[in-house]
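Hi everyone, sorry if this is the wrong subforum. Our group has a chain we'd like a structural model of before ordering constructs, and none of us has done structure prediction before. Sequence below.
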Amino acid sequence: MQNTFRPFGRLAASLAALFLVMTVLVPVWAADAEFRTVSTQALKDMLDEKQAFTLIDARTKEEYQEAHIGKAVNISEKDFDAVVSTLPAGKGALLVFYCNGVKCGKSKKVAEKARRAGYTNILLYSEGFPVWEEKGMPIVAGPDYAKKIQTNMMSAATLKEVLSQKKGEYVLVDVRDEFEFAEGHVEGAINIPAESFAVKSGGLPKEKGIIVYCNSGGRSYMAYRKLMKLAYPKIYQAIFDEWKKAGYPVVKSQL
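Answer:
Right subforum, don't worry. Here is the predicted structure as tokens:
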């Protein structure tokens, strides 16, 4: 009888050991949990209601100087240790961090430094400055904010070659309105309207080239700028009118 129950004794011991390991590991996992987030509207309400919190722009000094959310202070990852003394003395003070959107890791890195410094009340505005700007929220703009940028233009012929030979290396984005896209677009393109581009572009892969196009260049230029702010490394602009004038095929879809 004693031999019969011995395996169960070993099993119980193993389960007890596993429970002990999990007891040790769970607090470690909890310490690495994601930060709580705040929406665009909620952040605006907090600012409008003059709630007590510190808003921190975790982007570079150059990005901050170009434009930022009002009342935000600029603390980048590399500058954190030098300026941490300027943060509120009370470790329970509310800190809200932002950078250039959901694929920008700067705010999370600076927030993590704040957590290691002992701050316990931290929020991330994960949608970031591009979405704040896109939704028409108030910003502080520097002298270089409206400065024209030079886009990396892709001709219709090059675009056709890319789509036929290197399609898997690129994502083609039509930034026109949904009804325009339905009336005719380049085959293989996805539709992300310019008016909501920063909000919806978070799913675009950074490891691929992103090609944005519209009819004549205005809306795709704005989308290009937003992708730059979102730190996409390979961005191109194409013109749909040039594609049509070259006689290349256009496909239709239903709304």
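For your construct planning: The longest strand covers residues 209-214. The chain is about 40% helix and 15% strand.
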